[in-house]
């Protein structure tokens, strides 16, 4: 029992279809990898340091001290797996803006975050306690 002309034609279509499918898969996979895509991953980062930006409103020539309720926060980020696995707490900037805050009061400003490209913050505390005290000489 041998192959006839129709069998060879059918087999040719199947092989061509398989090669096209594999080629398209590699092409799409390459595009996704080059765009920073790939599987999405989550990562918990412990002790991301909180920095202060700006200066409080100073009345007169008194000195002041600024006390943060906490110096670091724990956060959760998500993004492409290849990028997420490399990120450390030093790659994330957490800061509060204390511009215009008055001495002698306690505030709860929002913690702002700067993350690397393609990385999204998905879990973090929103506020931190800031106390501005006047120092009398």
Search tags:
single chain, 137 residues, alpha+beta, RNA Polymerase Alpha Subunit, Chain A, domain 2, 5-stranded mixed sheet, 3-stranded antiparallel sheet, 2 helices, 8 strands, 36% strand
- Helix fraction? 10-25%
State the end-to-end CA separation. Answer: 107 Å
Number of domains: 2
Specify the CATH architecture of the largest domain: Beta Complex
User: Structural class, judged by helices and strands?
Assistant: alpha+beta
Strand order of the largest sheet: 6-4-1-3-7
- Please compute the radius of gyration using only Cα atoms: 28 Å
Number of helical runs? 2
- As for the CATH topology of the largest domain, it is RNA Polymerase Alpha Subunit, Chain A, domain 2
As a percent range, the share of strand residues is 35-45%
Q: Give the C-level CATH assignment of the largest domain.
A: Mainly Beta
The H/E string reads: HEEEHEEEEE
Overall pLDDT metric: 84
Shape: rod-shaped
Characterization of this structure:
The chain has 2 domains: 35 residues; 96 residues, RNA Polymerase Alpha Subunit, Chain A, domain 2 (Beta Complex), CATH 2.170.120.30. The termini are far apart. The relative contact order is 0.20. By secondary structure, it is an alpha+beta fold. The protein is rod-shaped. The chain has 2 helices and 8 strands; from the N terminus they run αβββαβββββ. Helix content is 25%, strand content 36%. The strands form 2 sheets. The chain has a 5-stranded mixed beta sheet.
């Amino acid at each position: 029992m041998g192959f006839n002309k129709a069998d060879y034609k059918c087999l040719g279509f199947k092989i061509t279809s398989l090669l096209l499918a594999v080629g398209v898969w590699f092409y799409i996979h390459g595009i996704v990898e080059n765009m920073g895509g790939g599987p999405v991953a989550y990562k918990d980062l412990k002790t991301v340091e909180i920095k202060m930006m700006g200066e409080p409103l100073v009345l007169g020539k008194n000195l002041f001290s600024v006390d943060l309720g906490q110096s670091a926060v724990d956060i959760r980020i998500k993004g492409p797996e290849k990028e997420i696995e490399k990120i450390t707490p030093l790659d994330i900037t957490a800061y509060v803006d204390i511009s215009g805050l008055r001495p002698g009061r306690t505030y709860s400003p929002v913690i702002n975050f700067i993350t690397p490209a393609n990385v999204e913050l998905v879990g973090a505390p929103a506020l931190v306690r800031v106390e501005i005290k006047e120092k009398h000489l």
